[in-house]
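Hi everyone, sorry if this is the wrong subforum. Our group has a chain we'd like a structural model of before ordering constructs, and none of us has done structure prediction before. Sequence below.
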Amino acid sequence: MATSNNNVIVSRIQNRRGLKQDLPNPLRPGELGLATDSKQLYIGADTEIQAGAYNKILSLENTTGAQDAIKSIANNQIISFTVPHIRFPSGSFSGTEKTISYTPATSKTYTLPNAGSDTRTTFRSSVTDGNLINLETNLAFTANTITVVKNGEVLSGSDNATVANLVSHDYIFSSNTALANTHTATFRNLLTSTDEVALTYYGNSAVVQALDGFSSSNTQISFYSTALNFYDQFSIPDYRKIDEKFIRVSPTTGVGHIGLEYKHISIVADSSANVTVSGLGNLRSSNASDIENSITFTPSGPSSVVVTVDNSGTLYNASSYYNHIYVENITNSWVNNKAISLTASNTTSVSFTLPSGNIWHTARTCTAAVSVGTSTTITGNVDGLSVNDTVRFIGSGASQFNDTNKKYVVQSLTSSSFTVTENNVTSEIANNLDYINYGSDASGANVQIFSANHGVPVGGQFKLAGSTATGQVANGNATLIGTATDNTFFMAAAGAGSSNVSGTANVVFGSDTSGSITRVRSTDLSSATTLSEAAAIVNNLSDADAWESLQLVPDNANRIYFTSKASKSSTPFNFRLHNDSADTLSKLQIIDSEYVYGSKLYDRDTTVKAKLEKWLDGTLKSSEINLFESVATNQVYGSNTFLGSHALESYPVDIDNEFSEMSFTSNEEAENFAYILNNMYFAKSGSDVKGLLTTKLNIEILTSLGSSSGLKTTSFDVTNTATISSGNVIASSDLPISTATYDTHVLEYSVKYDGTSDGNYRRTGTIYLNAFENSVTGNSDVVIQDIASDVSDTLSGNVSFGATFNSVTNLITLTAQNTTNKNLTMNWVQRRWTS
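Answer:
Right subforum, don't worry. Here is the predicted structure as tokens:
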């Protein structure tokens, strides 16, 4: 082809083909790119002609819910950060200088794509003097360890040249590790007024090193710092480490992104050791969001409790898999924070039975070592014992103790022994020695009871029976006082304990009869003889409520992890696991010290994302680690308790609704963001969709398959969508409608509701909109005409539309009057022009 200056450009056509998310953004000029999965064909634009703003803009694909999906992934799965850098925009130079000088504390204000601004220092202010060290080399930064970009092109730097012999390289650079030191870049060529220059101190490899460690045998971020790398600090298993291809830094702006896959935002329970499958029982799980509050509990008879709950949908079924409930928010009952087995269920209530006959006793067997000086060590069960408690020794073995009443104050305590002040034990006491704990009251007015897994909270009630010494511990209702552990509690004694008193206890529900319940699913794993079989049982659950996922750890067939299915929710939800009488969770190597009464809440604090937030926050507050200047995430996963007061920021996800575009500060930022986001989306949605974002430099070649253009019948596989609630609210990321460029809009739409016995609704029509604003009179308005027909089946009512116009924001807002009492779905295609 001959150009205007009679030059002829001859080139060999280059093409790429592969998955949509793997196509370059952008393609090279004239390069073809075939997305084999989405059947789209692109050609790269000529960057010399169409560079400028185009190479920083991403266009939204016409994928259903594209805008909502972009926001969800950006907010939950992409962490943005800046590494130390400094930028000089066009107009910074006069054309006479070759040198740029600044200090690590130099502050610059950068213009953002949304017309906002961001002021940053070159290095974070918390980095102290002497710590301006390159984390990868452990030396001061040099020309070959930073990246210098001029007008979008990476320059070549030299660590050996001088200004006089700078011939084969573009610049030299000097710095040291002091805060007051001036960093200087000297260029081979003069800097003109149109030049844009950026100096960035770290790239992808530095971030990867900080996550993974300084070397294979070193768990530190850097040689000179004691700070641990992320994976070692939080014991992240290999299969949940972050893929390096999703860690990207723009050399032009110093802005980086970390893309997190679903496994990083999902809440997971990992087995802590290899599993030997034997004697599995029921895997019990509950979705914490299923909680029902302000539920009434009514004791019925000596041990039964009726729970009043709307069970018309058979959410709870004593004879099916939702045969347990998790009870919480009851302050004085044994059932609090426990998974309780149901004994009956109907449409209005469920029932369960309180335990009875739990064995208890007041004395515990122990041994005494020979006195050492004035101290004697007692070995035995010390559950619930505290320093300064008063204990009384009983039995014939207590004869060597000096005290007449054999009462002593606990002086020190270990996990299996305690000491008392006693110097008369001359020979080891190995038999016939017990102790009774009076607690802080030496008179014996209170006594500590040992009852395995009694589960009654402080203030909770129980009924004692069969006391072997009612003068010391009386039969009848009793209340826990003081402190309690899983196996011990204090209660008021009938008399000072002088012997081992035992009996049985029946749980009493208590006076607090309002609380919360969550349905618990039981999945029978007893038939499984291998982990693969156990996983198949869980993963083959096919009912609508099945969210559980049990997976083998990649490359380790002896370990599993439990999580929620990605198909059930785009964002993770909290869940609980509950142990059973077969000790299934222990056999799966899942149970740990955080389980209370066999149940544990797995929340966002356990996710890789929450742990990464905590680690990143630690680096921001570190005086040594200079890797990050800022870190931003729009959905903080770590709770206040876990993360504390953090230094994490948020970043804008700006979408131009009028042109369905996103703008960035550099082409690398745009490319990185699109690559990460599209990959996250394809991982969730499969390969038969178009994706979410494509650079504006990749021009789509319209085909009949891709656009339906020129056919006698036009099919719209993707439309704009909205939900019209029964409360007249229209919710859609495609609304409101901008009039900044086009003031006339035509919407061809349909509205539907598909029910069951409650009927159906259909409406189809065309909405015409035209808005004006008179700057002289100050008046503005919008005209709307809705030409439509509808039909209702069984249900009554219909929907009608109105519109309002805001002349300040140039936005038309659709309004609805929905009298069907149903949530309706609206789809439409749009045409627009300027009047």
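For your construct planning: The chain has a mean pLDDT of 90. The radius of gyration is 35 Å.
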